[in-house]
Amino acid sequence: FYAICGLGAAILHLAVLHQDFSQTEKAFNLYQQDPTLDQFLRLVRERLHLNPAWLEGFSNGWESDPGNPRFANQSIQLIHEYIYGYSDKGVHVRGLFDQPTVGASGAVFGILFAFGYLFPNTLLYIYFLVPLKAKYVVAAYALFELYAGVQNSAGDNVAHFAHLGGMLVAFIVLKVWNKKNRRNFF
């Protein structure tokens, strides 16, 4: 009985994975054809369900800021190199999505921190109702991640310290990029 249930669960799992892979592969192929931030968000949306909502909320600020097209272009270029780096080395992309993902959400939190650092007074609307400044949203989210990581509740399989690590790496990268031009980084 257990073997049959296990076999049935494995078949069902593979069927669900096939459906998930086909949608993710379609989004990946669209991104390869047109490597823009919109296509990247579509690719991320297939794997992460909450974080792209945050990404979409503040990514337009980077793209539409006439003072600094450099930052958005560098971000897109890094993402492009990351994805094409795997495909150039002959790694089959479909196999990458069957692994647990820890770094992707850390990268999203790094982007969130960078937005709060570069645009601290931008208003973000929480649930389309409550306007909060980006610096307060980022600080509250970081404190929540610290609390959730220290609390260590049963059944919580989220890498909270990876999220904080993404924020720390974003802080270091911003400081390194701003080493020579401290007055006018943007």
- Report strand order across the widest sheet: 1-2
User: What is the count of DSSP helices, taking H or I runs of 4+ residues?
Assistant: 8
Helix fraction, binned, reads over 70%
Would you tell me the structural class of the helices and strands?
mainly alpha
How much of the sequence is in beta strands?
under 5%
Number of strands: 2
Helices and strands, in order, run as HHHHHHEEHH
Largest sheet composition: 2 strands, antiparallel
What is the 3D form? globular
Mean pLDDT equals 67
Low-confidence stretches: 1-5, 48-53, 86-94
* First-residue to last-residue Cα separation: 64 Å
- The radius of gyration computed from the alpha-carbon positions, rounded to a whole number of angstroms, is 19 Å
Could you describe the 3D structure shown?
The protein has 186 residues and is mainly alpha-helical. It has a domain at 49-177. It contains eight helices and two strands; from the N terminus they run ααααααββαα. It has helices at 2-33, 37-47, 51-64, 69-88, 93-96, 103-118, 134-151, 160-177, and strands spanning 123-126, 130-133. A two-stranded antiparallel ribbon has the order 1-2. A hairpin with a 3-residue loop joins β1 (123-126) and β2. α3 (51-64) packs across α6 (103-118). The termini are far apart. The model is unreliable at 1-5, 48-53 and 86-94 (pLDDT under 50).
